[in-house]
Amino acid sequence: MSSSLEKDVKTACEQVNRDRTRLMDIVREIQARHGCVCNEAMDSIAAELSIPRVEVESTVSFYAFLSETPKGKIVIRLCDDIVDRMQGVGGVAKVFEEELGIKFGETTSDGNITLQHAPCIGMCDQAPAALVNDVVVTRLSSDKARDIVKILRETGDPAKLITRFGDGNNAHPLVRAMVDNNVRKRGEVIFPHGLNPNAGLEKALPMTPQEVIRDINAARLRGRGGAGFPTGMKWNFTRSAEGEDKYVICNADEGEPGTFKDRAILTQRADLVFSGMTIAGYAIGAKNGIMYLRGEYAYLQKYLEDLLAKRREAGLLGKNVCGKEGFDFDIRIQMGAGAYVCGEETALISSCEGLRGDPKTRPPFPAQKGYCGNPTVVNNVETFCCVTRIIENGAAWFHGLGSKTSAGYKVLSISGDCAAPGVYEYPFGVKISQILQDVGAEDTMAIQVGGPSGQIIGKEDFDRAIDFDDLATGGSLIIFNSSRDVIGIAEYFMEFFIEESCGYCTPCRVGNTLLKKGLEKIQEGRGEPQDLEYLQQLGETIKVASRCGLGQTSSNPVLTSLKNFRSVYEAKVKPEEHGFNPDFDISAALSDAEAVADRKSMIY
Ligand code: SF4
Prior knowledge:
Elements: H1 3-15, H2 23-34, H3 39-49, H4 53-62, E1 74-79, H5 82-86, H6 89-100, E2 113-118, E3 130-132, E4 135-137, H7 142-155, E5 183-185, H8 199-204, H9 209-218, H10 231-240, E6 247-252, H11 261-268, H12 270-284, E7 288-293, H13 301-313, E8 330-335, H14 345-352, E9 376-380, H15 381-393, H16 395-399, E10 409-416, E11 422-427, H17 432-438, E12 444-449, E13 455-458, E14 476-481, H18 486-500, H19 506-523, H20 529-545, H21 549-554, H22 556-564, H23 566-572, H24 586-597
Parallel strand pairs: 1-2, 5-11, 6-7, 6-9, 7-8, 10-14
Antiparallel strand pairs: 1-3, 3-4, 10-11, 12-13, 12-14
Bound molecules: iron/sulfur cluster.
């Protein structure tokens, strides 16, 4: 092993006090410095942390941003999600291949540039987009792709690709990104002008923790991640769970294609999020908070770390927060490394512990046994913002916003076939038809509500509302006009889930592949009417037999498109052309063979 690698491993381990749970930080550091975490590095990390080498290897092999074999000094990750495909990423990909003289998955012969696809980098409102190391490049075209290769060849520096800064804090010296916030509609909770992000925290600390939870309950706040679990109830469970050491985790790992609203919140409202996490820490009796930031948003890391440092200086974090005797609380940022499944809260906890992002079996729930076996609250970015605003303005204020059954506002990421893709903050109860009008969508055929794990709806549902009791969503709407192919859309989403499944359980690992094969068969004109029933049954089985939220929702694109676009499927299946006999009796067919062998077949 080279002396520089040995030295870097030692330093990376020392920086986290040889804490095994910080393995993600260590391997990310080595990956960044050496282009891979090679065998020697894994041996050395295992020795430094006194853990079996297989544990290091298991983590390294799990995440898309980590690699056991060398990658180029520069890695271009071209986003390949469905919106990027609709915006012409195929042409951009071709130019990258031609200009670099390599295919996707390969590295140039000089070892300088690796070309890869990424499933979603959170830039659907400015697609096609790519990550070049940690630098985000947006609104790509064939010409821009040529320029990118030329600049990288000449300078070897991805930072030179930044030709302009986006709005707001995207131009901050610690961000300096071409990303646009694209906040096109401001509501009363997250994006109003002139709010004080710490007002809620200052009001919370004179209250008792029980009073804080009471107000969150009275406001009827439900988690904004999609599942909609009552936040106050979750906090109560965690507060009353056994264990002195409690944790607050912020899920900043939005990874579903079409989702990017947390990007805008983290860029413009990070202090509101940190205030909410601190209030949660006070309410449940925690000393430590972790923000799990998706690897694709690494360009925000320094800015967020700086905000945390400023909050410590201002007494908003650390010992006796805001002068509150006995309330000590701090927050660290845990970077992810490109694994969609880590958006599932138990997988996210595994990742925070330095493990593969494998979901855990529930119960026990995180509120009972979460991070390192301790009671843990996991809420998402938007939920923590709501917490701060509720305590600032009172439960009645929040309760009075939105619809009868869903309190407050919802921030939506809207992309696809529309004139004004971006981030919109609406009160709950807003109709889909209103949204389509606001975003300039014409000739809309379908909308994917809630990302791939949500549902695809058609025209007859456009009068429905964004609401926990109607169209519930974590916040993503992808719009498709009538030129799009609904079965092709479902096929793409199955491709996504096949790629992102952790592979632990068979229904998810195998079932989704079978669903995709079924869709392919229909698309190729080989489908039979009974295939639709097969897809339905298989999809329902995957839902109930999978272990975690990913598998339990992965068949939704197929099931909801079958339900809402049945006629499209039916038009593609033609029994008479194939001569298929649906009443084939396998027992009867085997009877002669059984008689000859004098044995009974086990096939029924
Ligand atoms: Fe892994 Fe899928 Fe099973 Fe979840 S459902 S544990 S992602 S294989």
